[in-house]
Amino acid sequence: MAEMSESSLTTAESAAPPRARLRLFAPFEWVVALRYVRARRANGFVSVIAGFSFLGITLGVATLIVVMSVMNGFHKELMDKIVGIDGHAFVQAVERPLTDWAQVTDQMQRLPGAKLVIPMVEGAAGISSPYGQSGALVRGMREQDLLRLPGMTGNVKDGTLEGFDAAGGVALGQRLAETLGIRVGDSVSLLIAKGASTPFGVAPRIKAYPVVAIFQIGMSEYDRVFVYMPLAESQLFFNRENEATVIEAFIDDPQAVDKFRADVETKIDRPLILTDWRQRNKTFFDTLQVESNVMFIILTLIVLVAALNIVSGLTMLVKDKSSDIAILRTMGATRGSVLRIFLIIGASIGVAGDIAGFLLGLTLATNLDGIRLALNKLMHANLFPAELYFLSRLPSIVDPREVTLVVTMTLALAILASIYPAWKAASLDPIDALRHE
Hints:
Structural class: alpha+beta
GO biological process, one term: lipoprotein transport
Distance between the termini: 17 Å
Keywords: Cell membrane, Lipoprotein, Membrane, Transmembrane, Transmembrane helix, Transport
GO cellular component, one term: plasma membrane protein complex
InterPro entries: ABC3_permease_C (IPR003838), Lipoprotein-release_system (IPR051447), LolCE_TM (IPR011925), MacB_PCD (IPR025857)
Pfam families: FtsX (PF02687), MacB_PCD (PF12704)
Radius of gyration: 34 Å
Order of helices and strands: HHHHEHEEHEHEHEEEEHEHEHEHHHHHHH
Shape: elongated
């Protein structure tokens, strides 16, 4: 009789019309799948596992989207801040001082792709006021160049850079001003060890300057150390008469800096040392990229664990519903129908978690800095100190390609996790299943 029953099932499957055999996800398969997903007294624990799988996928997708968006924001903000204030290519003198800086600047400005070329005198100094003292990186720059500096445009918070050369004062970062306890109109003293030469040796040089402007670049490391003064004054202060220590260039495409460097080497007939933004910041940006990749791998494990929960949940559901599956088979349901029912269950959990995680992650990523400020007020704490992260706000940039990758990857994992339990359900022998009832 067992052989006859199994034979009749096989005959029924083979006798099914071609359209019925080829149809995917018939209405009754959806009905059965959705009934199995919903909690019942007998299989409530299975539904709890399905709920945890859904929650795990939701949190995994949302966390991935938020973290990758923050890493993108960090990369872009730091790139804009660092390159916006430091330039893309740098030229320094070799063999003889850079007294012909005006000629070299003019030649570099005429090169293809050059946007802004700035000669300057750069040196370290001590800076003090009646209320504090600190170290500073002093840059002597012409007013016309300082006004066009990308990192400075629109970032002057107090005072003005108009008439900077004639004023003979200095502009400094907001965090440095806070450290010194000064504001526009106050005076600061700059000190260097190598000043004027005297019969008793080289004496330190100290000179007071009025503060004419306070700026906030948005990168705390720069706002804490940078001081700008007129180029002519810096040449006198650092004993660099009619000389520049470095010429920096901003170009249209930072990724095309190799071509610009080649043009400088071939078209400027003078011994020079050339460096670019990649060399100066290579370790920093490489580290940031490695951190981004590692975070992606670690957070993907959350999604993977949720997918494994789908496997365990469906496996338990198959065992719990073995008699129901056998009855469906005896009523004419094919192995393919049973397979598709359990695929629908696993895929439904994955799709629902994917959509919920996408919406949650997108909401958090686009409102991250506002959420941080609200948490700061609520907890009376600073959750994103600028001194540690170099930025005054928490950046977040959603990359559609990365979001698509996360959503697609999660959905694929959910479907793959459903295949084995669904295959086990389809392979269930209805005779054996009903024999134990």
